[in-house]
Amino acid sequence: MLLSSFAVAPTRGFHSILLTRITLHDEDHTCSVFVLYTLPPSIIVDRHELVDHGIEFELWGESNLELPVFAVNQTGTSLLLSVRPVAPHVDEVFVDVPIHARYGLPLRGSMPRQLIEVPPPTCIRACLQSRTSYIFFPPPLNQSSMLQPYSHFFVSQTAHAVPAAKLDVPVGSLDDLPLVEAGTVAVVLTAFLWLVYRSWMCSNKLQSRHFIDKQD
């Protein structure tokens, strides 16, 4: 079992796909293959999107997809996938995982950008009975229901030879902050004055009706 390649496509923007290719060599077909992604806090994985893609997975990490990166737990996200070849005698597995980037910290400069590094995944072969040594997985894998039926595991070390994938995303500019604050104040003040005006008009109408009722 070998991690052949790992990349993101497209490499720019808030929405991308993790592309993983795994080569299988004389695999025991009674065993199962899993892929473990350890994602930085800047990366979002939508569990509903994975379900729509028919991916069998377990996900640990921040579930709020709307929070910016500075408002989430900095431990990141762990994603475990169960993968299999498209045909019994095919020796390659292709895994596509849709991902999204959180809004990052604003930076100085015109149109600043942030480079997010996503480390390559770890490939795991899990067997019911094997000569492979038993592994005690750290959290959160020790809570995995997909790995629970298996007793023997082989963890591929080839991920260390594959470079991290890089996603280039735009971030807000601190140079725009004075303009944004001034615009926000102007909008709030305009809305307030409009409410005062409408309240005054409504009050005048009510007073006019009350005066007419008294004359009648």
Describe the protein's architecture and organization.
The chain is an alpha+beta fold. It has two helices and eleven strands, in the order E-E-E-E-H-E-E-E-E-E-E-E-H. The strands form three sheets. Strands 5-6-3-9-10 form a five-stranded antiparallel β-sheet. The radius of gyration is 27 Å and the shape is elongated. The model has no long low-confidence stretch (mean pLDDT 86).
List the helices and strands and how they pair.
Elements (H helix, E strand, L loop, with lengths): L1 E8 L5 E9 L8 E8 L3 E2 L2 H6 L3 E5 L16 E7 L8 E10 L11 E6 L3 E6 L24 E4 L9 E6 L6 H39 L1
Antiparallel strand pairs: 1-2, 2-7, 3-6, 3-9, 4-7, 5-6, 8-11, 9-10
End-to-end separation in angstroms reads 94 Å
> Structural class, please?
alpha+beta
What share of residues is helical?
10-25%
What Rg, in angstroms, do the CA atoms define? 27 Å
Main sheet makeup: 5 strands, antiparallel
| Spatial strand arrangement across the major sheet | 5-6-3-9-10
Low-confidence blocks of residues: none
Query: Roughly what is the average pLDDT, rounded to an integer?
Result: 86
Q: Tell me the strand percentage band.
A: 25-35%
Counting DSSP H or I runs of 4 or more residues, the number of helices is 2
Number of strands: 11
Shape: elongated
- List the secondary-structure elements in sequence, H or E: EEEEHEEEEEEEH
Task: Describe the structure in brief.
By secondary structure, the chain is α+β, with helices and mostly antiparallel strands. Helix content is about 20%, strand content about 35%. The chain has a 5-stranded antiparallel β-sheet with strand order 5-6-3-9-10. Strands 1-2-7-4 form a 4-stranded antiparallel β-sheet, with no helix packed on it.
